[in-house]
Design brief:
Strand content: 5-15%
Helix content: 40-55%
Distance between the termini: 50 Å
Number of strands: 14
Number of helices: 17
Oligomer: single chain
Radius of gyration: 23 Å
C-alpha cells in the first residue's frame, strides 16, 4: 500500500471522484474485524471503524514513524487543517478558525468549563451565579463542572427531564423552570449546558429551541454537548446558535478513537479559550493549541477525509446513513417492544440512531446495579452487547415494580450500517429465554 499524500493546501473538502455505492458484501468486509458471534447493538458507546479507515490510519502512523521530524515540521499541521476544513463545511461554520480538533467530547467540556471556572475564580463572574445543566448530562461533564466551576464558587442548577418522554414541549417546559431557578434572587446564568442527544436515556433534545430560549432569558453562554450528533442527526452550528458545540467523530462518523471537533463561535472571548494540556503552542489560539499537545498519535485526526470518502460510498452519503439508521432502529425497537409487550421510551421522531425499549417488568430491574448485572449476563451468556438503563418509577414505588408491571428497565439499542435484523432477534430471544426460565435480576445477584 502506498503512503497517503500530504499535498494540498487544506482549504477545501476533498474533491475526489465519488466512489461507487458500497455493496452488502463490502460492508461485511469492512467490519469483518468485529468479534464474531456477538450481537453488537451498542455503537453508541464507542462507535465503529471500518477496515479501510483503520488501514489509512496505519499508513499515517507509519509515515510519522519513518521520519518524525519531516512529518512534524512539514506535514502534520497541514493535514490537521485539512481535517478542520472538512468539518467546517460539514457543520456550516463561518470560518475554519472556529473549528478545533480534540480527542473527545470530554476534552471539549474541560476546555469550556475551565474557561468558565477561571471567570469565577478571577471575579468576572459573581459567586453563586449559575451553570444550568440537564440531569442526564454525561458523567464526565458533571465531573468537569465539579472540577472547574463549583470549586471556584459557581452554583449548579440541574434540570430534571421526564422519561419516558412524549414531546419536545415537556423538555422545553422543564428547561424554562431550570433557567428561572438559576435567575432567582438576582443571580445570573453564566452558562447553560444542553445535550443534543442524551446518552442514557437516549433522547434527541430540541437544542435549537433551548438555545433560543437561553438567548431570550439572557444566559451568557451556551454549550451544546453533542457527543452523539454528527453522523446521527443533522448538524448546522449556525442554525443551532450555541457559543460552543462539540461532537465526537469516532461514534457515528466512522473515525478511529479518539477524535472530536469543538466549534467555538468567534467572539471577544475566543482568545481566552485554552486547551487544558499546555504545550508550546499556548497562546496561539485554541485550534492551534489543540493541534499540538505534545508527542502523541495524531493519526485519528488525520483520517477524517478518508472517513468522509467511506461515508460517500453509501446512497445519500451522510444524510442517507442517518436516515437509514434512524428508520432501522425505530423498526427494530418497535419489533422488540411488541415482542415484550412494552413500548419505546420516546416517540420515533425523538430517536436518533439509538432507541430506548422498555424491558419486561418480570426481570425485576430495581436499581442501577440490577441493570449492570443484566447487561453483563447478556454479554457473557447470550453474546449480546447492549446497555441497560434503570429508570425509577415516577411515584417512587420501586419495590412494587414487578407486581404492578411498572417499567423500570430499558434497553438502549443502536443501529449502524453493519447491523442486521439477526442482532436484534438475538436480544429478543435472550430476554424471552430469561423470562421463560424465571430468571430475575435478584437471582443474578446470587450468581
Amino acid at each position: 500500500m502506498e503512503l497517503p499524500e500530504a499535498n494540498g493546501d487544506g482549504n477545501h473538502v476533498s474533491k475526489k471522484p465519488k466512489l461507487s455505492l458500497i455493496s452488502e458484501a463490502e460492508i461485511r468486509e469492512e467490519f469483518a474485524h468485529h468479534q464474531p458471534g456477538i450481537a453488537r447493538i451498542n455503537n453508541g458507546s464507542f462507535g465503529s471503524c471500518p477496515a479501510s479507515i483503520i488501514a489509512a490510519q496505519k499508513l499515517w502512523q507509519l509515515r510519522f514513524l519513518r521520519q518524525p521530524d519531516d512529518f512534524f515540521f512539514n506535514h502534520l499541521q497541514r493535514q490537521i487543517m485539512r481535517s478542520r476544513s472538512i468539518v467546517k463545511e460539514l457543520v456550516n461554520a463561518d470560518h475554519v478558525d472556529e473549528i478545533s480538533i480534540v480527542d473527545n467530547a470530554t476534552t471539549a467540556a474541560a476546555i469550556v468549563l475551565q474557561h468558565v471556572g477561571w471567570a469565577f475564580a478571577e471575579g468576572r463572574f459573581q459567586k453563586g451565579d449559575a451553570v444550568v445543566m440537564l440531569h442526564c448530562a454525561f458523567q464526565a461533564v458533571k465531573k468537569s463542572i465539579e472540577a472547574y466551576v463549583t470549586r471556584a464558587g459557581g452554583s449548579v442548577i440541574v434540570v430534571h427531564l421526564p422519561f419516558p418522554v412524549n414531546s419536545n414541549e415537556e423538555i422545553i417546559a422543564e428547561f424554562r423552570k431550570g433557567l428561572a431557578r438559576g435567575k432567582a434572587n438576582g443571580k445570573t446564568v453564566r452558562l447553560a449546558i444542553i445535550d443534543h442527544i442524551t446518552s442514557m436515556p437516549s433522547v434527541v433534545i430540541p437544542a435549537r429551541e433551548l438555545v433560543k430560549i437561553c438567548r431570550e432569558e439572557g444566559v451568557e453562554r451556551v454549550f451544546v454537548d453533542a457527543a452523539h450528533a454528527i453522523g446521527s442527526v443533522h448538524v448546522d452550528v449556525k442554525e443551532i446558535g450555541a457559543d460552543f458545540y462539540v461532537s465526537n467523530l469516532h461514534k457515528w462518523f466512522f473515525c478511529p478513537p479518539s477524535v472530536a471537533f469543538l466549534y467555538c463561535r468567534q467572539s471577544p472571548i475566543s482568545p481566552n479559550l485554552h486547551h487544558p494540556v499546555v504545550s508550546h503552542e499556548y497562546g496561539n489560539g485554541l485550534a492551534i493549541e489543540s493541534a499540538w499537545i505534545g508527542t502523541r498519535d495524531y493519526s485519528s485526526q488525520l483520517v477524517i477525509p478518508e472517513a468522509l470518502d467511506f461515508i460517500n460510498r453509501f446512497q445519500g452519503g451522510l444524510m442517507g446513513i442517518q436516515k437509514h439508521n434512524h428508520d432501522k432502529v425505530v423498526e427494530m425497537g418497535e419489533m422488540l417492544a411488541k415482542a415484550w409487550g412494552t413500548n419505546l421510551g420516546t416517540p420515533p421522531e425523538m430517536c436518533p440512531s439509538m432507541a430506548m425499549i422498555g424491558l419486561p417488568s418480570g426481570l425485576g430491574i430495581l436499581c442501577d446495579d440490577d441493570a449492570l448485572k443484566l447487561r453483563t449476563h447478556l454479554r457473557d451468556h447470550f453474546g449480546v452487547e447492549v446497555p441497560i438503563y434503570f429508570q425509577a418509577s415516577r411515584d417512587g414505588e420501586i419495590g412494587s415494580a414487578v407486581v404492578n408491571g411498572i417499567l423500570t428497565g430499558y434497553a438502549r439499542i443502536s443501529h449502524q450500517v453493519y447491523n442486521t435484523v439477526d442482532d436484534y432477534i438475538r436480544l429478543r430471544d435472550a430476554i424471552n429465554q430469561l423470562l421463560h426460565d424465571g430468571v430475575t435480576c435478584k437471582k443474578l445477584q446470587r450468581e
